[in-house]
């Protein structure tokens, strides 16, 4: 048995790649410095039950011995010698400090001459558990508990054979829960004690001794003295006496090797094994899968999910005086263990697959994986609906033999005419004399005093110094990449240089320059600035265009627009005919639209040799884009900034004397450790800080600061600290505006309230506090650029919108929270999350630069320097971390070919699984057909700058004459909820929200009723009081109203609404059953099963299984729902998976407005959503539902193809039958 020893050097970092999750953060731990064969002594004694320790020097280098195939593990220190032997199939020994659920956590602690190993999951670590360099036998019993690093470790011993093994309390709790036991370890009276209880039987604290006796008693009762080492026996110690023990099957290895090998070479993607094999046999199957390069997934009852990679590996980290060792699970590379907090089926299922598998599979969940519902329609309703349909006789519809569909049949139709607001300016084609006229006007403007003053300022900008070089590069290259530091003037000057040069060269008449901006406010503010510098009115030579708002004319030669406006123009003009220069700004942000535009431009350039493209970035990552366009030239412009002093969290605390309080008085004294016990997951940067020795690293700081650092949490922003920093600046620092970077509107509004209530900063005569958010009305956004009156300090509360493009030129102080809201997308589990996350170093640099525009400034970073130094260099591109359905619709509307092929050409292509998920969703909602081509519905949705589900809701609302509710709900979902939740009046606020919902069990109805109440109050000029009394945000309510008008214009633009006959489109606006049905049509396939479990309801989705209602929902306090299904706007993953904005709906709403109705595989009913939803009933009822749904789908197909079709005339009978059915909602519960 060959062995090797690997040397590790202390205090150096390495970066170990992970084949599944990408590189892990580089941290200063141990690094490999060499290797040599292991001593022969170990090889000779490898098979012995107690191998000798391998003594090596523990000086500068630490030697780690790794056995190639060892079932032993030991850790021992004799004098200056230290050694560790891993267990399992170990081929490598690597070092990394990343702590994830992928690894079995093991702590190593020096105690009286020995290092002790503590394993987090002893029941899964293989056949032989490890214990202080000895192989242990016997049954586990509780031995005690102690605090170990960040965990409470529960001590288990193996009978009388050895000392304790320390197990993480949370994992131990999971083990206990396997057989109805629950355990909890707590500190009480300086001793570690455990609370043990059986489900439903209460519980009490037991001393470690009593705990041990209790466990040993269960052992005697259940095992009758057995001392086997198999994990199944160990788990039986923890079960209740009534739990049955199923008999294991014996596996034929040769038979199953052949089956798995055949699956690999065949066409099947996976093989499901439903056999009751023991753990040893399951391990053998895992070995087989690994050797064949496959994935094995095992679902074997409750517990926590664990993923295992690449053999057994030892990972070691030094924390203070403790070495922490991380061992991977015993299972082999590629084996996916499915373990949830509840059992999904009573048996066992193993899945061998050619591709990685998600956390949950409904088809393997026999209990909750599908819903079989019997439709019980009364005879009266059946006759009434049938009579209405019979009288219709199909005469009001064009009949065809197409099968039932989701209302989006793939019939051909004429292309939808684009909205007028999306088109770019029409250039005056009367070139004769126009070139001279433009040149004379430009020269005349330069004679004015204001323009001369502007020109003097412009000439001081760094961009002006590269004007000649820039214009020469533009003239001689199709593509140019320009990177410019904050304040260099690239955004305002480079487009202007081109405009001035074209006009001066008598090419102004044919010149058409477009400059894209990622945000509306950027497009408006930059256009206004350049117009002022040219001495013109905005909308003359320079203009802007954003969604449904523009200021331009036929004279406009330089247009600033959002990237989305340009993308919609591409539908009409795929070659961007007539555009001479295109500048794409802020490409470093790697927004979805910007990366999408770059793919299109690279394809257009060969067809448009005269088109000039300039890519502008605020950070020095120009090489990436230069290579993408064939090593095109680059220009870098240095910034014009004054020195900026940087203060980190530790400095801010010292300077302001602000004290951070622990989050809870019930936490242990060390609050960071207490949070570790309570919070299930942490981001790597926060964990990095929490592992820091505060007293050692910050010994030069005051005791108060160190105490606050101990209490600080990187998971949640302390608004009190932000307020303290602002007040400190206002009291003790010089003049100058303050720019505060926050993550979103919630933090902005809460801080705004705190500052207004502040005794000092709340004085409006001395301080002007302004919010800045991308969703605010553009008129309000412009206020932040104005200088305040004398002796008034301006304080701007902003999101990352203020990082680049827009410049608030009087800012001297920046307060940076270090985070931004960023979407992440788990393609494997089809789950998107929008949560605050740490920014990149590039973004931090941008924020810092905002403070040095006019004079030396100060940047207050409200996070430790150690976190800043560990931040990634750049953010992950949006295309790699968000759902792609909107993008896929754009690709098809622009006729860019196969979606996956096109996206593979991106600068950094997205995960193919993300693309596949997006295409699947678009097919499910009826936007794409089976050939991946746009349906008539898809063509309409592609013209709406909205999420496809929200767009479909609007269309269905207009078709079924409840357009006002659809507009309101769509605007609120697309923007944000108007409900606010002040901590001091939380219960009152929740009650107000519930009052709007009534008994509808619907957050969407609550939104609708709140808006309607606000609208009535506004007519009476009492809207402010209404908002105050009902805990609503006035700004958000106004934004919802503005967006409603925008959406109405969009519907009118594509012919679905005639605004002059508004009443005709609101016949059913007060019909809540119809409104909920429209919600179902728009939000499908976001469907949840509501299943009664005793006095409560359990909710299940197809993608992730069991979910919970979001605490802020009106449904959070509902225990029993009247209807069997729920639709929701989004799933949110935080500590759990929550449904945000949900509505309880009936069977009939799903049957009429859900997905395709297909014959069930069993032949006894109909199904949808791939069989996840199954409906059965009598033949007459099923035939009636099929017939009505078929008529409804044909009506919808005609209406979508012919928006002017009046369904109140031609489809009157069908609509009446549907409404009759909805009004007879099947109010019953499963």
TrEMBL record:
> InterPro entries in the record, alphabetically?
CCAAT-binding_factor_CS (IPR018362), DEAD-box_helicase_OB_fold (IPR011709), DEAD/DEAH_box_helicase_dom (IPR011545), HA2_WH (IPR048333), Helicase-assoc_dom (IPR007502), Helicase_ATP-bd (IPR014001), Helicase_C-like (IPR001650), NFYA (IPR001289)
**Has UniProt tagged this entry with the keyword DNA repair?**
no
What cellular-component terms does GO give this entry? CCAAT-binding factor complex
Q: Which residues form the signal peptide?
A: none
**GO terms, molecular function:** ATP binding; DNA binding; DNA-binding transcription factor activity; hydrolase activity; RNA binding; RNA helicase activity
The family database entries (SMART domains) matched by this protein are listed as: CBF, DEXDc, HA2, HELICc
Residue ranges for the region (Disordered) are 204-254, 393-414, 659-684
**How does the annotation summarize its subunit structure?**
Heterotrimeric transcription factor composed of three components, NF-YA, NF-YB and NF-YC. NF-YB and NF-YC must interact and dimerize for NF-YA association and DNA binding.
What name is this protein filed under?
RNA helicase
């Amino acid at each position: 048995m060959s062995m090797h020893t690997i040397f590790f050097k202390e205090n150096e970092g390495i970066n170990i790649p992970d084949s599944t999750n990408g590189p892990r953060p580089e941290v200063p731990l141990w690094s490999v410095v060499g290797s040599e064969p292991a001593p022969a002594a170990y090889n000779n004694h490898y098979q012995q039950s107690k191998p000798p320790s391998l003594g090596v020097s523990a000086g500068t280098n630490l030697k780690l011995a790794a056995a190639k195939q060892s079932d032993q593990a030991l850790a021992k220190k004799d004098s200056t010698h230290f050694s560790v032997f891993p267990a399992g199939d170990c081929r490598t020994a690597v070092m990394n400090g990343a702590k994830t659920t992928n690894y079995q956590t093991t702590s190593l602690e020096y105690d009286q001459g020995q290092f002790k190993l503590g394993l987090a999951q002893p029941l899964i670590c293989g056949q032989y558990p490890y214990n202080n360099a000895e192989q242990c036998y016997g049954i586990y019993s509780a031995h005690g508990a102690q605090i170990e690093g960040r965990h409470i470790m529960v001590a288990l011993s193996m009978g009388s054979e050895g000392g304790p093994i320390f197990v993480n309390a949370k994992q131990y709790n999971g083990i206990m829960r396997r057989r109805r036991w629950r355990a909890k370890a707590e500190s009480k009276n300086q001793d570690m004690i455990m609370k043990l209880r059986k489900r439903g039987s209460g519980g009490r604290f037991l001393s470690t001794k009593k705990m041990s006796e209790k466990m040993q008693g269960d052992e005697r009762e259940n095992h009758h003295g057995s001392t086997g080492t198999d994990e199944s026996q160990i788990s039986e110690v923890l079960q209740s006496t009534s739990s049955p023990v199923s008999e294991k099957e014996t596996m034929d290895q040769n038979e199953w090797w052949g089956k798995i090998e055949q699956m690999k070479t065949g066409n099947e993607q996976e093989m499901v094994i439903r056999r009751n094999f023991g753990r040893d046999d399951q391990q053998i199957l895992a070995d087989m899968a690994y050797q064949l390069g496959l994935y094995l997934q095992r679902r074997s009852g409750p517990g926590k999910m664990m993923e295992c990679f690449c053999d057994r590996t030892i990972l070691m980290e030094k924390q203070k005086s403790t070495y922490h060792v991380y061992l991977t699970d015993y299972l082999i590379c590629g084996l996916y263990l499915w373990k949830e907090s509840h059992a999904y089926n009573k048996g066992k299922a193993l899945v061998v697959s050619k591709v990685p598998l998600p956390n949950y599979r409904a088809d393997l969940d026999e209990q909750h994986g599908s819903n079989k519902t019997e439709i019980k329609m009364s005879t009266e309703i059946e006759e009434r609906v049938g009579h209405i349909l019979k009288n219709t006789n199909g005469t009001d519809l064009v009949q065809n033999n197409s099968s039932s569909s989701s209302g989006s049949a793939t019939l051909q139709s004429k292309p939808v005419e684009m909205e007028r607001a999306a088109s770019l300016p029409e250039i005056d084609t009367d070139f004769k004399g126009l070139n001279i006229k433009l040149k004379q006007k430009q020269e005349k403007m330069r004679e004015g005093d204001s323009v001369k003053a502007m020109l003097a300022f412009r000439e001081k900008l760094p961009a002006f110094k590269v004007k000649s070089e820039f214009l020469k590069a533009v003239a001689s290259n199709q593509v140019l990449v320009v990177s410019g530091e904050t304040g260099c003037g690239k955004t305002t000057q480079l487009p202007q240089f081109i405009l001035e040069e074209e006009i001066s060269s008598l090419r102004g008449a044919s010149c058409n320059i477009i400059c894209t901006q990622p945000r509306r406010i950027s497009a408006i503010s930059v256009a206004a600035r350049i117009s002022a510098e040219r001495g013109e009115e905005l909308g003359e030579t320079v203009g802007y265009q954003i969604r449904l708002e523009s200021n331009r004319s036929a004279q406009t030669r330089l247009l600033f627009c959002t990237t989305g406006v340009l993308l919609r123009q591409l539908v009409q003009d795929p070659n961007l005919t007539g555009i001479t220069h295109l500048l794409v700004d802020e490409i470093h942000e790697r927004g979805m639209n910007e990366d999408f535009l770059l793919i299109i431009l690279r394809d257009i350039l060969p067809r448009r040799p005269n088109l000039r493209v300039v890519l502008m970035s605020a950070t020095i990552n120009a090489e990436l884009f230069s290579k993408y366009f064939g090593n095109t030239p680059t220009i870098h412009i240095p910034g014009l900034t004054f020195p900026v002093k940087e203060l980190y969290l530790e400095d801010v605390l010292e300077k302001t004397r602000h004290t951070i309080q622990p989050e809870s008085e019930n936490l242990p004294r060390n609050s960071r450790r207490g949070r570790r016990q309570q919070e299930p997951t942490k981001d790597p940067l926060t964990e990095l800080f929490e592992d820091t020795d505060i007293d050692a690293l910050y010994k030069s700081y005051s005791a108060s600061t160190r105490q606050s650092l101990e209490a600080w949490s990187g998971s949640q922003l302390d608004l009190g600290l932000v307020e303290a920093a602002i007040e400190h600046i206002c009291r003790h620092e010089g003049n100058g505006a303050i720019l505060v970077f926050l993550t979103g509107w919630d933090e902005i509004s809460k801080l705004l309230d705190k500052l207004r209530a502040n005794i000092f900063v709340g004085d409006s005569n001395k301080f002007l506090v302004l919010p800045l958010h991308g969703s605010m009305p553009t008129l309000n956004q412009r206020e932040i650029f104005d200088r305040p009156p004398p002796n008034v300090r301006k304080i701007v509360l902003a999101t990352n919108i203020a990082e680049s493009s827009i410049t608030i030129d009087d800012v001297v102080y920046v307060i940076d929270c270090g985070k931004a809201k960023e979407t992440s997308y788990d393609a494997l589990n089809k789950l998107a999350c929008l949560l605050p996350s740490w920014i990149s170093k590039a973004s931090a640099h941008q924020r810092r630069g905002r403070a040095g525009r006019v004079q030396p400034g100060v940047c207050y970073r409200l996070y430790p320097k150690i976190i800043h130094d560990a931040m990634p260099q750049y953010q992950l591109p949006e295309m790699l971390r968000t759902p792609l359905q909107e993008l896929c619709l754009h690709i098809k509307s622009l006729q860019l070919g196969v979606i996956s092929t096109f996206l593979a050409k991106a600068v950094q292509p997205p995960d193919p699984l993300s693309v596949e998920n997006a295409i699947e969703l678009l097919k499910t909602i009826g936007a794409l057909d089976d050939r991946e081509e746009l349906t008539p519905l898809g063509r309409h949705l592609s013209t709406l700058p909205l999420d496809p589900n929200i767009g479909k809701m609007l269309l269905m609302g207009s078709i079924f004459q409840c357009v006002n509710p659809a507009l309101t709900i769509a605007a609120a979902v697309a923007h944000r909820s108007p409900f606010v939740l002040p901590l001091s009046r939380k219960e009152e606020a929740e009650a107000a929200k519930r009052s709007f919902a009534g008994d509808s069990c619907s957050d969407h109805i609550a939104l609708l009723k709140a808006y309607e109440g606000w609208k009535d109050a506004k007519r009476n000029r009492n809207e402010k009081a209404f908002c105050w009394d009902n805990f609503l945000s006035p700004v958000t309510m106004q934004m919802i109203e503005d967006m409603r008008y925008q959406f109405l214009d969009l519907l009118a633009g594509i012919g679905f609404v005639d605004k002059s006959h508004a009443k005709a489109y609101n016949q059913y606006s007060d019909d809540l059953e119809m409104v909920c049905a429209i919600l179902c049509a728009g939000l499908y396939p976001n469907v949840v099963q509501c299943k009664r479990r005793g006095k409560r309801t359990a909710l299940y989705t197809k993608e992730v299984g069991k979910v919970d209602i979001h605490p802020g929902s009106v449904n959070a306090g509902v225990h029993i729902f009247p209807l069997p299904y729920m639709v929701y706007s989004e799933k949110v993953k935080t500590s759990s998976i929550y449904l945000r904005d949900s509505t309880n709906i009936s069977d009939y709403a799903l049957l009429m407005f859900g997905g395709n109705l297909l014959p069930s595989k069993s032949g006894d009913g109909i199904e949808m959503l791939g069989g996840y939803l199954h409906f059965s009933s009598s033949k007459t009822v099923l035939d009636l539902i099929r017939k009505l749904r078929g008529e409804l789908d044909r009506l919808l197909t005609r209406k979508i193809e012919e928006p002017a079709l009046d369904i109140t005339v031609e489809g009157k009978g069908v609509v009446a039958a549907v409404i009759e059915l909805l009004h007879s909602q099947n109010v019953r519960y499963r």
